[in-house]
Amino acid sequence: MAPHSSPHPARRPLTPAPFVLRLCLHLLMAGLLVLAAVRAHSAAGTAAAAVTGAVYAAGSYLPPVRTSRRAAAVWLGVLGASWLAMLWLTPEALWVAFPLYFLQLHLLPVRWSLPAVALTAGAAILSYVGHGAALNPGVFIGPLLGAAVAVATVLGYQALYRESERRRRLIEELIGARAELAAAERHAGTLAERERLAREIHDTLAQGLSSIQLLLRAAERALPPDSPAAGHIERARRAAQDNLTEARRFVRALTPSDLEHGSLAAALERLCEPGAGPYGPGAGAYGPEAGPRVRFSVSGTPVELPTPYEVALLRIAQSALANTVRHASASRAEITLSFMDASVTLDVVDDGEGFEPGSVRPSSEGGFGLPAMRARAESLGGTFTVESAPGQGTAVAVSLPLSPEDRSPTAGGTA
C-alpha cells in the first residue's frame, strides 16, 4: 500500500501481494505527478510537481523513514507541504490526493490518519474551487469518494493482515505443542518400556534364579557330607547367585530415575514438594497458587519393597495426583504409604469436586487413567479401588500383597 514497509524495526519480508500493491502505488504517484507537470500552466507548477516527486522518492529510500514512525510522520508532513504548494499553483495536483490517502492511512496511527485524510480531501476540494471551477456535486463527491475507498481498502487490508498474523502465530504454537507432545510421548514410551523390561526380568529371570538357588541349597543340605555331587551343587548355587545378582543389577538400571536416589517414600515425598509436578520436578507446581497443597505420610514400619512394587506405586501416585491437579479443583490432597504385615497400601485422597466412578471412560488423550492404574495394580496381584461422589472428593487406594520374603531386609532385589 505504501512506498515502503510499515515503520517497524523488525519487518517481515514482503509477500508477492504487498509488493505488487507497493509497486502500483509508486506507478500511480509517478503517473499523477507527470500528468500534473504536463498540464500545469506555469513553470512554477511544473517545478512544484518535480519537488513533490523528489520528496516522495527520497522517502522511499531513506532508512529512517523505513524504521521510525516519527521519521515517517515528518516525511509525510514535508510531502504534504510540497503537495499543497503544487495544489496552490495548479488544479491538476488534486488527483495526487488519492495516493496521499493511502500513505497517511498506512504510516500514521488511526487517530491521526483519519483526520489527515479528511484534511487532505478538504484541501483538494477547496483548491479546485479556488482555481475557479464551477460548483457541482462532482467537486465534492470525487475527493470524498476517493477518501472513503482508501479508508475502506487500507483498514480492511490491515484487519486481514492482523487475522493472518494471528493464525500464523496459532499455527506456530500448534506445531510447537505437537513437537512437545511427541517428545513427551516418546519419553513416556521409553519409561514404560524400561518398566516393562524391569518387570519381565524380575518376574522371570530373577524369580527363576532365586528359586534355583533355593532348590540347590535344599539339595546341598540333603546330600551326605562326602557326596561327590556336593561340589557341583555348590558351584551351581554360586553361579545362580551371581546371575541373580546380575539380574537385580539390570532391574535397578531400568528403575525410574525418581527411585534411583532413594526409597519409594523419599520419591513420594519429593513428589509432594512445591515446584514438583506429577511427573517429576518442573512438570508443574503444587502450591496455593497453582494447585492443591499436598502432604505425604508413612504408616507402619517401612520395609524394602520389590522394584516392580516401587515402580507401580510411584506411577500410580503420580497419575492420581495429576488427575487431582487437572480435574478435581482441590485445595488439599494427601498421599499415605502404609506398611502392614501382609500388604503395602498407597492412598491418594483429595477434597476436590469428585465424580461418579462408574461413569469414567478411557481418556481420549491417551492419559494414564484409572483403568491403566487398575491394570498395573492387578498385574502384581494387588487390588485397586476408587471412592468418590460429586462434591465429596476422591480417594484412590492400591494394595499389593507382601510375602515373608518380601519383608526381609534383602527383599528389594529378590521379590
Strand content: 5-15%
* Main pleated-sheet profile: 5 strands, mixed
Question: What is the distance, rounded to the nearest whole angstrom, between the alpha carbons of the first and last residues?
Answer: 76 Å
The helix-and-strand class reads: alpha+beta
Contiguous runs where pLDDT drops below 50 for at least 5 residues: 1-15, 278-289, 363-368, 408-415
> What is the number of beta strands?
7
Overall mean confidence score, pLDDT: 74
Strand order of the largest sheet: 3-4-5-7-6
Task: Give a verbal description of the structure.
The protein has 415 residues and is of the alpha+beta class. It contains twelve helices and seven strands. It has helices spanning 16-39, 43-61, 63-67, 69-89, 97-107, 110-130, 137-222, 229-253, 264-271, 307-328, 370-379, 411-414, and strands spanning 276-277, 280-281, 293-299, 332-339, 343-350, 383-388, 394-401. The strands form two sheets. The protein has a five-stranded mixed beta sheet. α10 (307-328) links the parallel β3 and β4 (332-339). α2 runs antiparallel to α4, α5 packs antiparallel against α6 and α10 (307-328) runs antiparallel to α11 (370-379). The protein is elongated. The two termini are 76 Å apart.
